[in-house]
Amino acid sequence: MRWEKATKVEWYSFIASMPLIDIGLNHVLYGQRLFHDYRIWLVSFPLIFAAGVITWYFHVLYSHNAQRKYPEISQSSKRILLKFLVTFFVMSPAILIIFFVYDRLHILGYEWTSNSILRGLLVGFAVNIVFSTLWEAMYIMDKHRESISEKELVQQMSLQQEFDVLKSQVNPHFLFNCFNTLSSLINEDAKKAELFLDELSKVYRYLLRNNEAGLSTLQNELKFIESYFRLLKTRHGEAVQFQVEADKRYDNYLVPSLSLQMLVENAVKHNVLSKNKPLMIDIFTAAGNKLIVNNNLQRRTVKGPSNRIGLDNIKMKYKLLGQKGFHVMEDARNFTVVLPLIWNNNISKQWISQSTNTENLTAK
Predict the structure, then answer these.
(1) Is residue 210 very low, low, confident or very high in pLDDT (cuts 50, 70, 90)?
(2) Cβ–Cβ < 8 Å for 121, 95
(3) Does residue 206 share a domain with residue 140?
(4) At 219, phi and psi to the nearest 5?
(5) Does residue 194 share a domain with residue 48?
(6) Across-strand partners of 342?
(7) Contact yes or no for 262/170 (Cβ under 8 A)
(8) Given 54, 158, 185, 351, which residue has the most CB atoms within 10 angstroms?
(9) For 104, left (φ over 0), alpha (ψ -120 to 50), or beta?
């Protein structure tokens, strides 16, 4: 066996128990003399203590060896059996060596008796069983914690992978729709197309930056949606109306990046837009850490193709984050989506966009 470094539990258990073990063995060796013969404390006590250090260290060696040979929780029965066999057939009988040496050297007048041998064996067996039980219990607890940590890490990695897939859907979807709009504007109004392209370049720079982390602050999302709305105004004019009322105390709460853009885009896509009957989109905060996105319903008679990326994407992100409260409600007049606002202390920092710089939305 190689040199082993004892764990803190092994050290603490030895330091706490060895003085008591020493006293117990000396009482077995010398009986009541222990309490009035100072030589026992000066000679035998240190000898037993030194022997205890050696025995304890060999106990550490075979315990670690058993853990290496059968490291898994599922192998606990094999590991415990191995430790018990070593304790019963090797470590406990080792106490006989102490009694044999004491008898041969007549240390402080000790003489071998069957009664003292039996009592010594019982003390040695009890001590080794206590040590083995304590160390095994701590080992199983540590392995259980490791197992839970590994499971959580695997779940986290899986969660992040799924989240990345959802994020990867957003950029192509957004860009494809913007190019369709730009293509229409080129044929209808070249100047509007130029303005649209200029706004698009600013908005898309922000989109690329903030979609990397998956979550953005409400403040950033609202600034972004106002820039996105300017794209819509370039294309649709007064046919789209937009209003935002958000309590400032929610500025640093989080929402999945580009959620507002996807919801606004869906509203524009599925409803009739006209100057006489404009599409009204309202975004506002509500009690209970909620963000409400509402639009009046004026469904298109001819529905365009829909891949449902928007709503399904947002819903799945909240599900992956373990956040409840996402709701979609519809009646004869309104279509409403409730987005839970997430306090950022509850979410892993790797998913939170650290970008608070919005100069790319206003730079020319």
Answers:
(1) low
(2) yes
(3) no
(4) -60, -45
(5) no
(6) 254
(7) yes
(8) 351
(9) alpha
DSSP string, 297-344: --B-SSPPP---HHHHHHHHHHHHTT----EEEE-SSEEEEEEEPBPG
pLDDT digits (tens, 9 = 90+) for 71-87: 887 888 888 888 787 77
Q: Contact at 8 Å (CB) between 101 and 32?
A: no
- Structural domain including 242 reads 189-361
pTM attached to this predicted model: 0.52
What totals of helices (H) and strands (E) does the chain contain, helices first?
A: 10, 7
Structure tokens at 259: 């959620």
Got the DSSP string for 211-266?
TTTSEEEHHHHHHHHHHHHHHHHHHHGGGEEEEEE--GGGTT-EEETTHHHHHHHH
One-letter amino acid for residue 34 of the chain: L
Rounded Cα–Cα distance for residues 348 and 156 (Å): 10
Half-sphere exposure of 316 (CA within 13 A, CB side): 17
Coil vs helix vs strand at 296:
strand
The reply to whether 145 and 198 lie within a common domain is no
Q: How many domains does the chain have?
A: 2
